[in-house]
Amino acid sequence: MLNLILFGPPGSGKGTQSEKLIAKYGLKHLSTGDLLRSEIAQKTPLGLEAKSLMDKGQLVPDAVVIGMISSALETNPEAKGFLFDGFPRTSAQAEALDKLLELKETSIKMMLAMVVTEEELVSRLLKRGETSGRSDDNNEGVIRARIAEYHNKTAAVADYYKKFDKVVTVKGEGTVDEIFGGLCKEIDSTLD
Ligand code: ADP
């Protein structure tokens, strides 16, 4: 299996690049942000709990997202590989993911970490907020809170995978195709 983590701060372009990567490599896309937004749209109890945290720019509890990922892995037994987007976001999530993959006798191949400056992130997210309808994108305070959560809790996830020599950094600024080219080059170099 080819299991990849697409990593980077909010607004770094993970969603856009994920769509292109799953098409090219035939992977199943698992985005915890998308899974949570679908719970919110269906007004489930989990969705209602998550929404109040997401609207403040805070992370939802580890147990919630780990449970969602665990069932997504189980419901896709035929997948050739998974592209994790927005997960893991804490060290506890990273450890849980390793254990879940071990049960399936597989592991993470690499973490692709996208690098984008903070000012570029804020301007992209505010722009997305004009059209996306996402309530966490149209308020600069909430955007800054999400970036702070990223620095406080999520950046450490890269250190976790560095211990296993699995992290490659990729430039997250430029055209969508240039960035995609950078990601594919790294993936292809591990496939030979
Ligand atoms: P972004 O575009 O900011 O990277 P996502 O769409 O991935 O955001 O997620 C939106 C929100 O959903 C996050 O700000 C957070 O509140 C919640 N969320 C998504 N994934 C996770 C996760 N793995 N752990 C905790 N909270 C998460």
Q: What is the N-to-C order of secondary-structure elements (H for helix, E for strand)? A: EHEHHHEHEHHEH
Whole-Å distance between the termini? Answer: 14 Å
Helix amount, in percent? 55-70%
Structural class call reads: alpha/beta
Radius of gyration: 16 Å
Write out the strand line-up for the largest beta sheet, numbering strands in chain order. 2-3-1-4-5
Instruction: Give a short account of the largest sheet.
Output: 5 strands, parallel
SS elements, strand count? 5
Mean pLDDT: 97
- Principal-axes geometry comes out as globular
* Bound ligands: adenosine-5'-diphosphate
> Helix count?
8
Measured by DSSP, the beta-strand proportion falls in 5-15%
Low-confidence stretches: none
Describe the fold and architecture:
With 192 residues, the chain is an alpha/beta fold. It contains 8 helices and 5 strands; from the N terminus they run βαβαααβαβααβα. The chain has helices at 14-25, 32-41, 45-54, 62-74, 91-103, 118-132, 140-162, 176-191; strands at 4-7, 28-31, 82-85, 110-115, 167-171. It has a 5-stranded parallel beta sheet with strand order 2-3-1-4-5. α4 (62-74) runs parallel beside α5 and α6 (118-132) packs across α7. The longest helix is centred in the C-terminal third of the chain and has 23 residues, at 140-162. It is globular, with a radius of gyration of 16 Å. It starts with a strand and ends with a helix. Residues 10, 32-33, 36, 53-54, 57-60, 65, 86-87, 89, 93, 136, 146 line the site of adenosine-5'-diphosphate.
